[in-house]
Amino acid sequence: ETCQRPWWDSRLRLAPDQENYKKNEEVMLSCPEGFQPSFTKIKCSSEVQSISHGKPVYREVWHGRDSRGGWIRIWSNVECVEVLQVVPGTLEISSTSIKLNWTCRLPDACQRMRATCRLAGPSFPPCEAEEVKGEERLHGRKGTFTCPPLQPFTDYSVTISLPPSTILFTWLVRTEETVPDKPEKLWLDPSTGSLRWKALPSCKGEIIGYQLNITTRSAQDGSFLEMERLQLNSSVTEYPLPEHSPGSSYVVTMQGLTAAGAGAASLWEFQTNSWDTPRPLDISCRSVRDISPSQGTAVLPLRPIAPHPEVVREHQLIVAAMHNGTAVEGACLGEPQPFNASRQPSTYVAAVLNLTAPMDFVLGSGTRGQGYHNAALRPGSDYMVLLRLIHRSQQAEKFTCVCYSFSV
Q1: Which of 59, 102, 161, 344 is deepest in the core (most CB within 10 A)?
Q2: What is the pLDDT of residues 344-393, one digit of tens each?
C-alpha cells in the first residue's frame, strides 16, 4: 500500500518530505536554484513483477508527469539538471559590449527566460555611469544575448532568470578599457616654472601615465629648437619646463595613457616672463658661408649644443629639403633614412661628429661612415641642415637642434 522514498539525486527536494508515500499520492520535486528535475511531479504505483505459487508478486514503480500532463513510467534516476548552460569560450567582452551564447537543456523550463544587464553597483563622480535598460526574452533551445551599449571599464551583472525569482545564470564582469579623454586642466606655475595638471580620473581605464611633448624655441636664437618626449607615471602631476632665455616659447601637448593606449591630446602654449598672449616664435636658421656650386660643398660654422660638451659629444648632422617651421620640427624628431642619390635632397645623416669645440665643417665632401654619407650638394638646390643632439633616459627623449639654411 506504500512506496519507499526514492533514492535518486541527493539534491532533489521532495514535498511532502517523507520516508514512505501512499500509492497514487502526488509528490512535488524541486532542485537548488539554477537546476531543474527531469520531472516536477511524481506518484507511486505498483506492477506485477512475477507469479509465485500462483500468486502475483508486486513491485513499486514511479511515474512522472510529462509536459503534456500525462503520466509516464520513470525508467531511470531522476536528476537535478542544469537548465541553462553558457557555452564555454563564447563570452565576449569589449569596452562597450558583453555577449554570450546559451543553450537550454530543458526546453519546457526555458519558455519564460529573461536576460538582463545591470550596473553592478553605484557609480560616483566623476565616473558616473548610467543604468542600462537591457532586458530580453529568450526563446528556443539556444541563442545569443548581447547587452546594449555599455560604458568602458565599468562593472555590470549579466543575469538569466525564470520568473518570478529563479536565477539560472549570473555573471559579474567589467568591460574592457579604452583610451582616456584628453586632459582639460594644465597651467604654468610662475613661481616654480613647472607645468601642473589635474590628474585624469580612471573612468575609461586605469590611468597608467601621461605622455608629454614639449617644443621649446629660444627668443634670442631663432635657429634653436628643443623637442622633448616624456612618459610620466600616473602619480606625477607636475613637470619643470626646460630652463631657457626669457621670452622663450613653449608648445606642450599632453595625452593620458591607459592599457588601451594614448587618448586625445590637449595643446597649450606658454611664454616665459611674459603675461601677453603666447605666440609661437619663428624659426630663423643660421646662414652658411663659402658655398661652392662647382665642388658641391658648403662650410658650416658649428658649435657644440650641449652646455657640457665633454659629457655629451656625439652630434648628428642632418640634411633635409628646404625648410619651413613644420619641416624643421619633423626633421628634428625624425629618423633619417640612408642617403639615396635618386631622391636627393631627401632627409639623411651627412655626418656623426664628436663635437667638443667650435669647428668649420665642410658639407658635401663625399666622406662616408657607418650609417651616414656626406654627399656632394647639387647646384640649384635649397638645403636645410640640422645639427642634432639626442639625449635618452628611462622616461624621456630630448632632441635639441640648431638649423642652417642656404641655397647652392
Answers
A1: 102
A2: 557 889 999 888 889 999 999 988 888 788 989 888 888 899 999 988 88
